[in-house]
Specification:
8 helices, alpha+beta, 7-stranded mixed β-sheet, 2 domains, Nuclear Transport Factor 2, Chain: A, elongated
Length: about 300
């Protein structure tokens, strides 16, 4: 019991144990270098920006697998200065920079800050504005060797495109759960499992075939699937390329899977083999059910 009491008494001490590894500053010569890069971005020159970076500096953006170079950073700045005016990089409300000098680091210091980037497109007059958090390693000689930037790439990219007169209507994915659903549907058809296949569709689904007037309902389409199973002893769908899952942002959003296939069938009576090219488009609702199917098939033999 005595050992237990002593162990419990030590828990608060262990929980609050700290090791000082360096000193944090709110002002420091290293951050003066960082502030100078902001001034140069706003109204400076290529030569001025290059002078602040080590030749082999690495510059990272959000989610990037490889670091960028000083040449790329310069090109990026010049593009902004060419296409935008009133570039400003200001301190985020309530934030202050932190400059960390680690105890065993004799070469430089880390500077980090929380800023707001804004600029006005020279043609459209639209504003691009983004919050960003950046980390810089600055040597004692006043050279930046590493920059790591964090910001919302999606929001910033959409604002930039809008300011340039482009509107992004969605996103395209080559891997997605609804692509998996499509592959399951194809597998059920190949296996002749029509009842299972039908469960992937909403009750009010509409089926279209290009070149054919009108549309079929689920009951009518199920009958055509059953006829195809009865007619062909072998039903093999060979994927051509890869499917695209597309999210269209307009009209409250819509998920669509576009896919391309070679259809290899063997007639059950004659044994004749046919090969046709098939393009399919499937609309999915929020419950993951297909609400519309559009197909186009061509015999390319």
């Amino acid at each position: 019991m005595k050992k237990l009491v002593m162990a419990l008494a030590l828990i608060p001490l262990l929980g609050w144990s700290q090791v000082k590894s360096g000193v944090t500053y709110s002002e420091h010569p290293a951050y003066d270098v960082v502030k100078e890069t902001y001034r140069i971005w706003e109204s400076g020159t290529e030569a001025e920006l290059r002078a602040l970076y080590a030749e082999e500096a690495k510059i990272w953006g959000p989610g990037e697998d490889e670091a960028g170079t000083v040449d790329e950073e310069v090109s990026n700045m010049l593009w902004w200065q060419k296409n935008f005016s009133d570039i400003k990089i200001t301190v985020m409300k309530g934030a202050t920079p932190d400059i960390i000098k680690y105890k065993n680091d004799k070469k430089g210091a880390w500077a980090m800050d929380w800023m707001v980037f804004s600029a006005v497109n020279k043609t459209s007059g639209l504003v691009v504005k983004a919050n960003m958090h950046s980390n810089y390693y600055v040597t004692n000689q006043g050279k930046i060797t590493t920059t790591i930037n964090y910001y919302d790439r999606e929001s910033a990219g959409a604002q930039i495109q809008a300011s340039l007169g482009m509107h992004r209507n969605g996103r395209v994915y080559d891997e997605h759960p609804i692509i998996n659903k499509l592959n399951e549907m194809v597998a059920h058809f190949e296996a002749g499992e029509i009842s299972e296949l039908a469960t992937y569709f909403s009750e009010d689904v509409k089926f279209y075939r290009l070149g054919v007037d009108g549309h079929l309902n689920l009951e009518e389409r199920t009958a055509t699937w059953q006829q195809e199973v009865a007619t062909n002893s072998v039903r093999n769908l060979e994927q051509s390329g890869y499917p695209d899952a597309i999210y269209y942002a307009r009209d409250k959003g819509q998920w669509v899977v576009q896919s391309w296939w070679w259809v290899n069938n063997t007639n059950a009576e004659t044994g004749k083999e046919t090969r046709e090219y098939l393009h399919m488009s499937h609309d999915f609702n929020d419950e993951g059910k297909v609400t519309r199917e559009v197909i186009y098939m061509a015999n390319l033999d």
